[in-house]
Amino acid sequence: MTRSQIVSIAEKIIEMFYHDFDEKDPFKILISTILSQRTRDENTLVASQNLFSKYPNVESLAKAKPEEIYDLIKPSGMYRQKAERIIEVSKIILEKYNGKVPSDLDELLKLPGVGRKTANIVLFQGFSIPAIAVDTHVHRISNRLGFVKTKTPEQTEEELSKVLPKRLWGPINVAMVNFGRNICLPRNPRCEKCPFSKECKYHNSAVD
DNA sequence: AAAACGGGGGC
DNA sequence: GCCCCAGTTTT
């Protein structure tokens, strides 16, 4: 598959499945992204709303005790870990970064509970900085469509960065997640609804 | 490289 | 009941 073919399909995926996010506050994006780890959107949303209704900013969260927010964030799962990390992150942001979330990959990666995927989501959504956050959806779909041939998400991030122009880095995450949730499912993809099945390596070989 | 964290929804 | 989910950290 040529580079221009890949870019063309990527642009179509974005056109069909990208939607903008209304939340632009980097701190709220950071916290809700931590809550979203290994968690469905619906549960993440409930947990975020619960949390921010009582602790609306970095100052109030930095003063909270983990036990106080267990019940608020419980719908997102792994609530003990997440509670401690969220409060620790808030303290660090407040004390070390003067209350402002850093817009720098290396600084974000130092925060507890923040790995490569979470950090890149914050960079793109919170700061409009081009970043590819390779989650299971992006990894799976990139391989199925033949954009890359990789074993790990890290390799996918690297290869995808080489192939796609920077302007697509942010939007392709969001678009592939929506595409993956609705059509290109992990186990039983709805290929009959997929606009790319004709040129899809996975669909035409039936091997993952 | 594998385990552990974890509630909720789909089947 | 079993499997999976915008992962990260610890063993």
Automatic annotation (TrEMBL):
State the top-level EC class: lyase
Q: Superkingdom of this entry's organism? A: Bacteria
Binding positions for [4Fe-4S] cluster per the UniProt entry: C184, C191, C194, C200
Supply one GO BP term: base-excision repair, AP site formation
Keyword list (alphabetical) reads:
4Fe-4S, DNA damage, DNA repair, DNA-binding, Endonuclease, Glycosidase, Hydrolase, Iron, Iron-sulfur, Lyase, Metal-binding, Nuclease
Q: How is the cofactor bound?
A: Binds 1 [4Fe-4S] cluster.
Q: Please name the InterPro entries in this protein's record.
A: DNA_glycosylase, Endouclease-III_FeS-bd_BS, HhH-GPD_domain, HhH_base_excis_C, HhH_motif, Nth
Q: Which cofactor does it need?
A: [4Fe-4S] cluster
GO terms for molecular function, please? 4 iron, 4 sulfur cluster binding; class I DNA-(apurinic or apyrimidinic site) endonuclease activity; DNA binding; metal ion binding; oxidized pyrimidine nucleobase lesion DNA N-glycosylase activity
Pfam families of this UniProt entry? HHH, HhH-GPD
Domain HhH-GPD residues, every copy: 35-182
Listed NCBIfam families: nth
Q: Which family does it belong to?
A: Belongs to the Nth/MutY family.
What does this gene product do?
A: DNA repair enzyme that has both DNA N-glycosylase activity and AP-lyase activity. The DNA N-glycosylase activity releases various damaged pyrimidines from DNA by cleaving the N-glycosidic bond, leaving an AP (apurinic/apyrimidinic) site. The AP-lyase activity cleaves the phosphodiester bond 3' to the AP site by a beta-elimination, leaving a 3'-terminal unsaturated sugar and a product with a terminal 5'-phosphate.
Q: What is this protein called?
A: Endonuclease III
Taxonomic source organism: Pseudothermotoga thermarum DSM 5069
